[in-house]
Amino acid sequence: MIDLLRRIGLWGRGVVVAIPYLWLLLFFLVPFLIVFGISLSEAMLAQPPYAPLIDWLVDEDAGTTKLQILLNLSNYLRLGGDDLYILAYLNSVKIALVTTVCCLLLGYPMAYAIARAEPAKRGPLMMLVILPFWTSFLIRIYAWIGILKANGVVDNLLQWTGLTTEPFELLYSDWAVYIGMTYCYLPFMVLPLYATLEKLDPTLLEAAADLGCRPWKAFLTVTLPLSLPGIIAGSLLVFIPSVGEFVTPELLGGPDTLMIGRVLWNEFFANRDWPVASAVAIALLLFLVVPIMVFQHVQGRQTEAGR
Amino acid sequence: MKQMGKLAWALWFGYAFLYVPIALLIFYSFNESRLVTVWGGFSTKWYAELLQNDQLLGAAWLSLKVAAMSATASVVLGTVAGLALARFGRFRGRTLFGGMITAPLVMPEVITGLSLLLLFVALEQAIGWPDGRGMTTITIAHTTFTMAYVAVIIQSRLVSLDESLEEAAMDLGARPAKVFFVITLPIIAPAIVSGWLLAFTLSLDDVVVASFVSGPGSTTLPMVIFSSVKFGISPQINALATLMMVVVATGIFIASLVMARQERQRKRDEQMAVQGG
């Protein structure tokens, strides 16, 4: 009897899990397979604009049907052969790395200061970091246009102090992209850093100090290694989406700020070359598989540690 | 606290970095001049103009509908997913499930958008659904990437909670469904509220995925903002941004007040229970 109840219970659980499971299979996993399939297809003037991969060829005379599967690798060969794509990938990685380092340099002291503040103040201080995240990403990028453009706030300030006399424009450059992306991704860095730094036992630092360790050395040998999980989680949370970023380079970057997200967007919307866009996406995904898996590992361990 | 000096500076610099752009944006929304960065006197005319921009208002209405629907759907799916990850132990396919939950958190939007569009196109060819692209496809796409956030919030809330309450209810003969609705759901209610708010904001914010999966005639607010921002800045967008921020800030403020009150109530109840026992 108990065994039967258990069985029903487990069956009920299975049904419950099945709903989000099937949803994710259909709308998250299957789409990747389709992207992969279409990346092996050929662009064609049609609706939708690619040649079908699998076709049934009906031979009326012989009365037979043949299954034809056409795969072509030319899209991938094009990615490997054209400097534009390779440069775009390399440049995306460079911009994502710089963004991650900037977020870390700015976010670590913030997270550390909040974690060392009085317990009652930590919540509100952290809230102040998260709050901008709730306002629109697009609008936060937009805010920087007015600041960085010629005759914008920075330019006016510099001219007013007499540092420059010529109009000075930061907008439409790689610098603007670094600033904008650091701005948008900063909370993603501070959150996991704060989570590990807050759990850090302050008596460890006291012990180090009692044993004659200087503060900066104690930081390097105690605090920094112990906060490594937070550093890794935060860096990946910033780095991975940054590589494929589209909006920031499109709005703040110049025409020569080459990033792979922009290339994909243009292949898809401007050139209507869906197969090449798919190949770009698959190549990007292959590059990101390792970081994503590391992120999942770290994320999984952190949630387990919450127990 | 002496070494806090430099740290405090770093903290305030960080806050300045985060808030000065937003403050300037709001400031210039009340600017009389069309030149956004030249101060021409106080005026609210951009707000008045905004209310007459039918294209913008239509897009805003569509975005709000999509955000409300997808946030609701993603809270339902995400809660179930979070519950499964936190409470069901090991089940078949758990690794894949966990992977599909965390991957959307970091997946570049261009990949999500492209892959969902290709899925919708393939589905339409195969079974005739979805018939064209529009509100339905945007809602499905937003549900898919926001449910991951909800699931993670719910999961971490459940992991940090003691399982004993649920176990006690089970021991007293409550069925799993009843345990969920009577015990678990009220406990994770604050997490559900923040999950819904987060999903709503993320949906209201998305331009990349929506651009891929929307069809003619279904332009969301971020898509309108994006295309107008590409042609330079306009005071109307400043006014719109200010209004959106006021709405979001009010929503968060009310939600946090309600949650703080519930938390206090819960603590009082717990104390009473302990004293009573």
UniProtKB/TrEMBL annotation, chain A:
InterPro entries: MetI-like, MetI-like_sf. It is found in: Cell membrane. GO terms for biological process: transmembrane transport. It comes from the Bacteria. Keywords: Cell membrane, Membrane, Transmembrane, Transmembrane helix, Transport. SUPFAM superfamilies: MetI-like (SSF161098). Residues 89-295 form the ABC transmembrane type-1 domain. Pfam families: BPD_transp_1 (PF00528). The keyword Transport applies. Coiled coil: none annotated. The chain crosses the membrane at residues 21-40, 86-113, 125-145, 175-197, 218-240, 274-295. It is a multi-pass membrane protein. One of its GO terms (cellular component) is plasma membrane. The keyword Transmembrane helix applies. Belongs to the binding-protein-dependent transport system permease family. CysTW subfamily. This is Putrescine transport system permease protein. It comes from Azospirillum brasilense.
Automatic annotation (TrEMBL), chain B:
PROSITE patterns: ABC_TM1. It comes from Azospirillum brasilense. CDD domains: TM_PBP2 (cd06261). This is ABC transporter permease subunit. Keywords: Cell membrane, Membrane, Transmembrane, Transmembrane helix, Transport. Pfam families: BPD_transp_1. The chain crosses the membrane at residues 7-30, 66-85, 97-123, 135-158, 179-199, 237-260. Residues 60-258 form the ABC transmembrane type-1 domain. It is found in: Cell membrane. One of its GO terms (biological process) is transmembrane transport. It comes from the Bacteria. Belongs to the binding-protein-dependent transport system permease family. CysTW subfamily. The keyword Lipid biosynthesis does not apply. It is a multi-pass membrane protein. InterPro entries: Bact_Polyamine_Transport, MetI-like, MetI-like_sf. One of its GO terms (cellular component) is plasma membrane.
